[in-house]
Input
Amino acid sequence: MIELKSVTKKFNEAIALDNINLNIETGKAYGLLGSNGAGKSTILRLLSGVYQCEKGDVLIDGEKVYDNPLIKERVVFVNDETVQFNTYTLDELKDFYKAFYPTFSEERFEKLWGILRLPRNRRLSTYSKGMKRQAVLICSIACQPKYLLLDEAFDGIDPTMRIVVKKMLVDAMLDNELTVIISSHNLGEIDEFCDTVGLLHKGKIIFNRELDSVKGNIHKIQTAFDRNYEKADFDDFEVMHYEKKGSVIYLIAKGDTDDITEKLSRKNPKILDIIPLSLEEIFIYEMEVLGYEFNDININ
Amino acid sequence: MFSLNLQSGIPIYEQLVKRVSELVISGSLLPDDKMPTIREVAKNLGVNPNTVQKAYQILEHMDLIYSIPGKGSYVKDSSKSIEIIKDEIIDKFKLQGREAIRHGITKEELKLAIDSLSEQVF
Output
């Protein structure tokens, strides 16, 4: 279990995280979304004990992370930057990780290596960007951590590789009860893998939802009637957005599809189309409700 | 394995439940057939294993599959629950049918539509 309690982190006078509260349950895949500078990496670095916060508590399994080696052994942070490992070969990189993590499994490493077959005796500086990522990733998963923090792990790797990485994560989640946090500025990249998504904006979490509870629950409706209905006539379910163009009414509504269909059918519609909103559209409307402009946040 | 639309706004677990129940109701999956493991489905689709687990739990609840600890999940001989699900589907069909009748579509036109449907599906 990961808990951030009223966490504030500043860099000099700049506030990176502003009084953040966040819980992530064990075994979940959590997507941390936000534009550049929103505070995603800062959260991951607090969780890996690289940074200390000025205010609040950063807890893993109930204990403070900073300066706590026993907790840090359960956490692996995969930085989006790999330049620090340029002089290592893959085998040296493996030994580096192994030295810090007593749970490191050679067997697992060999298995993962067998999938990717990266060259073992070349320096990482001769690797492509994607290969460096893969090298760090297989070392990280071989550490068999309880918590894996992936900073922009899916950004900039090709689709085939993304599938391979997801498969590795599935195994780790099933075998080690791994909790994984994936940060990204792209909703589409983490959409199908994460159960919960949090949206960071200017150091605050403005949206934190279980995806299954938002998906399929908000609909775009296009309908028309013989009679002249107004907005107030649709108060038997939750309408988030109402628009009338000529005789056609466009609604964005929250609730169960069957329930809404039934209620609208009672009014004898001439047309009735209900389409579930895509996740991106859901974000746009949910944030409109919160008073944010989606374009300001710039995550697609 | 199971083909789903990962980009759609419909939750993945819901799509999975629907796909499996279609296969069971249509007889494509037979009683005591072994279901793919949660790991296999999650890896195949590239989705979170928790999502697949949720779908399997619902399918068990719907009495369409059963699990043997340590062995896996199997299709259940579930003629009763199949009847219930069929009834629900027919109810939905009737709702659409009523709308069609309201729009002045005749019985014959509806019959033709049904005939053309079954030709497409089978």
Summary: Chain B has two domains: 12-77, 80-121. Chain B has a mean pLDDT of 87.
